[in-house]
Amino acid sequence: MSSQGRTATPGLRWLTSPGRVAGVDLARGLAVLGMLTAHLLSIAPFDGADPSTWLDVVNGRSSILFALLAGVSIGLLSAGAGGTCLRVIRARLAVRAGAVWLLGVALISTGVPVYVILPAYAVLFLLSLPLLSLGPRPLWAIAAAVAIVSPLVQPLLDDVLPWESPGGAEVALLIGWHYPFTIWFAFVAAGLAVARSGFGPRVPLRLVLGGGAAALVAGVGATLIPDEALSDGWASRALAVAAHSGGLPEVIGSGGIALAVLGVCLALCRTPAATIVLPLRAVGAMPLSAYTGQILVWAVWAALALGTTSDLGAFRALNPLPVFVGGTILLCTVWAVAWGRGPCERIIAVLASRLIPGPPRARD
Asked: If you write DSSP's letter for every residue of 124-191 in order, what string do you get?
């Protein structure tokens, strides 16, 4: 071990260990901060000629990147596992799903006016369990099939499900239906496929080219849809482009962008720039803690400053974004360097391993 390695803190050794994929941490850090930016800024629709609208890229795409990386994380956690070990990992993931769901419900109860993604995450964790024994080819096929078919079916589901009935909105929040698992399962499956495909030297370029091609096809395809087709109720939703619409162009385009961003992050972290972006990697190494901390601080700040947690416009007027971004990066970096794994991640991992004992290989 080098003298630098001997003098590094245990947390820093954990953050920079070969077992962590630095590019995945970086991409997760960007996703967490992107979702925060989408929440705290009111951004005009993207216009390439107007730089003030360029931040619109975070709307919708950040949460899709987050979901893709959930699949990557699950794939890394279960890589090479089989038999008893795989059963233990599945059981522990189910425990994690329950804990993440409860945490999501607690964050919803703060009244902060965002659609908390954690309940959807929990459902997606459970849906991923049958996929853990599959290889990359069937996983890519599943991801592609769900990404193409689900947006076409989703409007019909929304019409028949009882979201407008008494209590329907609350149920939708509790299962994360703003991020409908019927569609978002495609992103998790794609993330699993990425992890199963490995992180060899050609992977970043393949992700950039493949993801970029998907985004280009979706963008060009969206321009070819006749305006009269979008006047139809079903088509206006199934073929929508807007962020969080769940339309086919959005799903394919934003999913492709997520893959490309991951590819760029993987490539960047194979250069000396990996050290420069270490604070962002620290955020991505503890995404659950960062996300939870942001919502809780928002709730406390808004309650003290405004007397309510539910007024989004008034809270945005306080210009909290620089404080949140700077504070998140600083606190996550200090924690990661000093102690390694984030507090929420640590607690849930210990809970899962205590409830589901298993062989040493089944670590999480």
From this structure: HHHHHGGGTT--HHHHHHHHHHHHHHHHHHHHHHHHHS-TTSTTHHHHHHHTTTTS-HHHHHHHHHHH
